């Protein structure tokens, strides 16, 4: 299977940083847009091409897309309140303008048609973020990009267990960030994954810590 370059938004921490480790193991070409100067320098030292800028800044996003080139696979793990929809929308729109064609968007269980899987408590605490992520999903699905959507359960730190599963349909549970990165790595080069929505959980884990 051909290893396409990765254009990563959100690679400085969390799932995105775990994904960078997977890419380094594969000797994958990677381009990342990073706002924090210290984190940007860390990624440069690892061998990534780093664009200094913000995912909410049109020029920064355009520079990153042009640097990656049309064959790159975009991976967005953005998770801030401002970027969940606004940032991802800008990425999608800019990618279209720059002739990129593939994007894997990481959101969360509860988005889109999985909203009924959230408890009343979860809707109260995380509902606004989930709705913003749902808007990003819809923007990707209605764009010209080939989109793959990955909805992790509650995220937790720790080593990958290797026991997590992908589900198409309703799901509820938690998963390590490392395992989410593994699923991204498995899906991103697979043409059959685009146009699909997957939930990812680890049935052996029970302690939810973050959506």
TrEMBL record:
Pfam families assigned: NAD_binding_10
Stored InterPro entries: NAD(P)-bd_dom, NAD(P)-bd_dom_sf
Annotated ranges, domain NAD(P)-binding: 10-190
PANTHER family: FLAVIN REDUCTASE-RELATED, UPF0659 PROTEIN YMR090W
Protein name listed in UniProt: Uncharacterized protein YbjT (DUF2867 family)
